[in-house]
Amino acid sequence: QVQLVESGGGLVQAGDSLTLSCAVSGRRFGSYAMGWFRQTPGKEREFAAGISQSGTTSYADSVKGRFTISRDNAKNTVKLQMNSLSPEDTARYYCAAAAVASFTLIPQRARTYSYWGQGTQVAVSS
Q1: Which residues on neighbouring strands pair with residue 32, listed in sequence order?
Q2: Which residues contact 44 (CB under 8 A, 6 or more apart)?
Q3: Which secondary structure element, helix H or strand E, spans residue 47, and what is its range?
Q4: pLDDT digits over 10-35, tens only?
Q5: Span 1-11, mean pLDDT?
């Protein structure tokens, strides 16, 4: 069983930075592609960033150049560094793990991910 616990959310001002962390328990962390998704009330959960088993990364256009995803396989953690935050980044952020066959694949569909954390709230004031 894989469990994910997010931390690091909070209330910040526009232009500030924030780092989200995801601690993953369970075996074979290195065999999962990891993703960060975000969701606002009334909207579908959307892909923000992902990292493959090999460490390649992918970002939504809305966060490209501002967010950085990283993973530490020795510590079973995934982080999302968020810079230049804007009110449009306000959402609940979820960490997710996907068991995929490809070493370089980064799924962007939420339904591909089997394991999810409870989420952490990020609020950005203008």
Answers
A1: 99
A2: 110
A3: strand 46-51
A4: 999 999 999 999 999 988 898 999 99
A5: 95
